[in-house]
TrEMBL record:
<dbReference type="Pfam" id="PF01965">
    <property type="entry name" value="DJ-1_PfpI"/>
</dbReference>
<dbReference type="InterPro" id="IPR052158">
    <property type="entry name" value="INH-QAR"/>
</dbReference>
<dbReference type="InterPro" id="IPR002818">
    <property type="entry name" value="DJ-1/PfpI"/>
</dbReference>
<protein>
    <submittedName>
        <fullName>DJ-1/PfpI family protein</fullName>
    </submittedName>
</protein>
<dbReference type="InterPro" id="IPR029062">
    <property type="entry name" value="Class_I_gatase-like"/>
</dbReference>
<feature type="domain" description="DJ-1/PfpI">
    <location>
        <begin position="11"/>
        <end position="85"/>
    </location>
</feature>
Length: 120
């Protein structure tokens, strides 16, 4: 399958999802779903993502409501912990972080109209 076909198939599969997360260059596979939206990806792919029409943010995790993206592979751990915090609260996220013996780096970038800002 060529790259465009993959992007189209993935975009169609996730269309209508209540919450979508993407890590590293997986963001590049979301096609039109990222156009005009704040998001991030692996550092070496940021220019390509911008060329596709995304508003690229320099952050490990970018939360735009129903779309949460993370930079490189290890940023996926931060994304997972952010989802735990957003869905279950800060105490649960801190416990998960302690169990994993992992410390998150940097803040999560939140869009201005993001209801997640009320969590935690």
């Amino acid at each position: 399958m060529d790259r465009e076909a993959k992007r189209g198939a993935i975009a169609e599969a996730v269309r209508g999802a209540k919450l979508l997360g993407s890590v590293c260059t997986g963001t590049m596979l979301l096609g039109d779903l990222v156009v005009g939206r704040p998001c991030t990806t692996f550092w070496a792919a940021k220019d390509d993502l911008k060329a596709r029409g995304a508003h690229v943010v320099d952050s490990r995790v970018v939360d735009d409501g129903d779309l949460i993206t993370a930079g490189g592979v290890t940023c996926g751990i931060d994304l997972g912990l952010w989802l735990v915090e957003r869905l279950f609260g800060i105490e649960t996220a801190l416990l998960a972080q302690k169990i994993m013996e992992y410390e998150r780096r940097g803040p999560v970038w939140l869009s201005r109209d993001n209801p997640a800002q009320l969590v935690g």
